[in-house]
Write a structure and sequence with these properties.
It is built from 33 helices and eight strands.
Length: 840
Amino acid sequence: MSVIVVVAVIAALFVLIGVAEPLAGRLRLPYSVALAAFGIVIGGAASFFLRTDLTDALNPVAEAILNFPVRSNVFLYVFLPTLLFQVTLGMNLRRMLDDWVPIIVLAVVAVAFSTLVVGGALASVSGIGIVACLLLGSIVSTTDPSAVVSIFRSIAAPRRLARIVEGESLMNDAAAIAIFGLLMGFVMQGVPDPALGAALGRFPLIVLGGVGVGVLLGQVAMMVMSAVGRYEPAQMSLSVALPYLAYIAAEQVLGASGVIAVVAAGITVNASAPGALSPGVWQNMREMWGLLAHWAGALIFVLAALLIPRLLEGVSWTDIGLIGVVVGAALAARALILFVLLPLLSLLRLSPQVERPYRTAILWGGLRGAVTLALALAVTESGRVPDDIQRMVGVLATGYTLFTLVVQGSTLRLVISRLGLDKLSPLDAALARQVVAVALQSVREDVKAATENYGLSHDIVRSEAKGFGERLEGAVKAAERSAEILDRDRVTLGLIALAGAERDMILDRFRERAVSPRLTERILSDVDRLLEQARQSGRLGYRRAARRAVGIDPAFRVALRLYNRFRISYPLARLTADRFEILLLQGLVLRDLDTFIDARIRRIHGRRVAELLHELLHRRAEMVEQALDGLRLQYPGYAEELERRFIRRTALRLEKREYDQLFEEGLVGVELHTDLMQRLDRRFAQEDTRPALDIVLQKAELAKQFPLFSELDEATLRRLSRALVTRYADEGDLLLSRDSTPDTVFFIASGAVELRAASQSWRLGRGELFGQLSMLVNSVRRAEVRAIAPSTLLALDERRFRRLLRRSPAIQAAVQRSAEKRGIAVPELERLAKEAKSGG
């Protein structure tokens, strides 16, 4: 085939891609279904014109289409890496990690279970060997999420649900292809029969080897991209090369999974790029990959669909019956996963609660697509696979894919409509009527002012005002009929709106370079969690998510252990600096949200709801301020440096806004504006470098500020600061339990704790200590201590505490006060007092 013909066919395919999307929207079909339909029609028409005697004029075009160089390797090596890499770049890794259990279980368990069910059902009725049937089961077990996820987004389904479906599909591609590669060795002729144990023994290499290759190449790519930071086209080009190099290196060099390597490389770039690349480059890279994936996904569907008529040649009624068996078995396997396993995970609190209508939509939306056809094509192209297995796999896999696209795809929106998922809930419908009434009242006032300024004809203005007034009156009456909305529901809706406004404010700060891309993604993840928890559990869920946003995450705890045990300070210093910046930004945004409540939410939901939202917001602000106070106490010099840097970045942001406004008003020209922007960019670059945090030095400063240590000399204070171990606690954390052996004393640097013994309780705050009494009286601990606010504690072991107690009258007095408060006699204090008197 000549180069001109290939180029002409590719150009025609892009025309087809451009036409298919608006046509799919008009016909209310999933885009992938429209593309597949085009491909089937074109492939069928080409076969028809080659065989018919009606005309020979179209034979060259038909031959070009049917002989177009489409092989399984084209799908697996050209298109698949692009699709997988783009999905991983677009994922919110922090939110995916929240749901990693259901994603992994649904992906891996679902693929393995579907493979067994489909293979077993087919083997029982077809007389074909079980291994070949299992091979087919692995081929049809991978799903294409694009249709169902796009529809979920169009009907405002919970984001977490769409995220789980998307994550499941990404991972089940890798699982299905890995199982497919394992089973292919058992059906190929001319190669030694692999032992099952040896084949399963290679499975860890397939998975772990792919992960290792992907992570390694991803890290290398990020290092090179950081080194060429001034050249954006070079960075884009390196990102394009990465998934293909990862796929080839894993498959051809190591014999591992190329799919897993691409996913691992994409996750590595996703995690590292926001901190290594400039915000503009990272944004442009994701947009570029979005366009590449759009083209790759469209081309893979069209080209795969072109093969369907060829793969279904000579289909018999027996084949149709076996396709029905595959359809039934695959649907049954997926139904068991969705209606048995998923509810079980929800009961175990490992997965979000997924309502039955959504599970039904996921079941019917499990479309199969290009990956299934590509794997089937790989079997039919292999000369080592027996002819009967080639034909069986080609016909059944293609027939099943055709069923999902034509039957399930064309009726998916109808099913969603019958399930009522495309309709507003009664609460949202009532809210919509109120929003319309409030909006129209504002519009009437603005239109009235505008028409008076424009000097329009009085009769025309009066006529239009009358029509608008009638519409407004109808909207107000409809809103009055919606008075049944409970305050509880209004608060929930207000919290959802509040989280949405918070997200917009953070994105505005990111666009103005007030915060780095890496921290922006982390903060946005916390905001998304606020929104989802508010939608699911109202005020209770919002408070829970707010506490988590301010609390100490697992990565911070790991970094703290590394420092306390091995004196590795870099991870803790970096995460502490991140925490500073995040809390500073949260505090500023929370102040702006107060204005949003009064300006927008109060008009829709009323004064009482606005007051409740103000109260919730103020509690959040108190938690943030308390956490900030704790950090300022620990790292006073560093806190001042960060706040000064924040002010300088704010000044630069406002300066940029002023220059942009002058440019838009025509007061400065293009050349001057460009020069001013370049100067600002250089100053922004200087401020992008965050000051370093010296954890060891800062802990010594903290010990110096502690009231109980104020009388110690410098040498003793230095030794003490090295012995003190920092510990962070979230609200509700158990710090000391009953009946435990007393061996540690805690000093409260910030926050508060509650001590409970028998029916009594005491609250302790900054500057106080606990854990010392049971240690000094040599008794088993009879009280428990919990944090009642995010707290920073300094822990000291028994030997050092006793030594410090002998040297410090201030600590002796503090211990005596706590003992008197609880009515406990401490003989050791009395002995120390006598020694002091005799020494005097």
